[in-house]
Amino acid sequence: MCRQRLTLTFLFGIAILATRSFVTADIPAHCLHDDVLGVWDFFLQPTAEAFGGECWSEDVLPSERFQVSLKSPNVAVARDGAIGTWTMVYDQGFEVNVAGRSFFLFSQYHVGKDGNVSSFCHASSQGWYHSQRPNPRRTLEDWGCFKASLIEADNTATRFYMLPQPPSSKFSSKSTLESLRTLGVTWSYGAQLDGSSFQDLRKMAGSNVAFSVKRKASSDYSETDNSRKMDSSPSPNYSGLPASFSWTDVGHSVVPMRDQLNCGSCYSFATTDMIAARLRIAAVKKSSGAHAIVDQEISVLSPQHVVSCAKYSQGCDGGFPFLVSKYAFDHGIVSDYCFPYQSGVQGGQNVSVACDFICDDPRALNFVSGYEYVGGYYGNCTEESMMRELVSNGPIAVGFEVYDDFMTYTGGVYKHEASTDWTTTGFVPTNHAVLIVGYGEENGEKYWLVKNSWGRHFGLTGYFKILRGVDECGIESMAVAAYVA
C-alpha cells in the first residue's frame, strides 16, 4: 500500500502541496465477498493524520468501537440499526458507507520467504474513515484510522497462493501469431511489442501480481462468490439506447491519447481520463445548448498526482479505478500541468517520483461528487447498465485481463479464444485498467470501443475494440463511474 504524509497550506492564495511517499508492491491480498459477510468490530482512532495517510498508532488506545453487520449482497447494518451499503473493492478489501461515515480497509495478508501468500479475510491491515460530508466542507477533524476484525462470520477462510515470477526472457509473439493463424481469428494482429521484457509487459498491464494465479485457491474452501451470478442476470433491455455511440464523436470530450510508458499506472490514466471527460461533458451540459468554453488545460487531470500521492494505490505497482475515484472524492486531483507525468521511462526502469509539487491555480484541484461500481457494488455490473451509464454521464473506467495475444492486436473486434467462463464465480481476474468511450457493432459482432494508455502506436491509434455482452476477459466485471457536480 502507499503511505504518505500530506501537508496542504494556502499561502497568499497559493496552494502548496508537499508529501513524503513510501510505496511498496501492489498488495497481494485475495478475499472474496462471501469471506467477509458477518458482524465486524471497527476500532476507531480519530486523527487528522489519517488525511495524509499516516495511520494507526499502537501507543494510542482506540476511542470508539463501532460494530457493523455486512449482509449479502451489499447491505450494511450498524449496531444502532442504521442501514447503509458496502462493496468489495476487487479482492483487496471493502468499503462501508453507514451512519454518516465512510470506511475503507485493506484485508490482512502475509507473504512468506518462499513466496507463499496467506490472506486473512477476517481482519484488516490498514483502514481509514471519514465523515460522508463532501469536500471541501470536510475538515481534518472528520478523519480517522481504524482496524477491524470479523467477530461473527458467515464463512471463514484463509486463502493461499504463490506469488508468480515473470520469465527472465524477452517477449516474442512468434508462437502467439502462429496460434492465431491456426485458429483463424477474425481480428487483425501483428508483431508489436517483441523484445519487451515480461516485467515491462506486466508493468504495462498495471499489475504486480498475476491474478489468474491468485484464483488458484486452497482446496479447503470454495472459490464461489455469490456476489456475482452472471448466469442469472436478466436479458439486456436496449430500449432508449442508440445502436452505436462514441464520446470521441462529441466535441473534445475525450482527452488526447497518452502513454503510461514503463510504469504500472494504467489505473491512474484510465480514471483521470474518465473524470476529465466527465468534467468536459458536464461543462457542455451546463451551457444549456450554448457554445461551452472548456479550458483544455485545466480539464486534463494528472496521473502523476495519483501515482505519487494516492495512499489508496501502489504507485507504479498498480491500483484500482474505484480507489482513484475515492481519492478524487477525498482529496481531489490536480490538473496535469501542475504535476506532469514523469514516472514512465521508455526502455528503462520506472522513475520513483516524490509527491512534491506546487500548484498556484485554485481551479486546478478537481473533486468528484461521488463514485461507485456500475450496478451499485462490485459484482453487479452488466452490459446494459454500462451502456446506460456511458451514454448518460460519460466514459467509464474498467478492468480486463490481458493475455499474450492482446499484445499483438492491430484491429477488429478482439476476443481471447480461450477465455474462461466466469458465470459460476464471483471473482473475475483483471490486470489492466482502460477507459470505455463507446460501443457499436462490426460484421455482426457487438463491441466496446476502448481507450488504452500505451500511446498511439498500439492498436487503432491507441484504441481497441473488444467483444461486448459476454464479459470478454472480464471487461464487464468491474466498471467504475465517478460523478462530477
CATH architecture of the largest domain: Alpha-Beta Complex
Task: Assign the structural class, choosing from mainly alpha, mainly beta, alpha/beta, alpha+beta, or little secondary structure.
Answer: alpha+beta
User: Overall pLDDT, averaged?
Assistant: 82
Secondary structure: helix percent: 10-25%
Query: Within the CATH hierarchy, at the fold level, what is the topology of the largest domain?
Result: Cathepsin B, Chain A
Number of strands: 24
Low-confidence stretches: 1-25, 208-231, 421-425
Q: State the CATH class of the largest domain.
A: Alpha Beta
Radius of gyration from the alpha-carbon trace, in angstroms: 22 Å
Tally of discrete structural domains? 2
Within the largest sheet, what's the order of strands?
3-4-5-6-7-8-9-10
CATH superfamily of the largest domain: Cysteine proteinases
The total of helices stands at 8
Measure the end-to-end span: 30 Å
Described by the principal axes of the CA atoms, the overall outline is: globular
Main beta-sheet annotation: 8 strands, antiparallel, barrel
Q: How much strand?
A: 25-35%
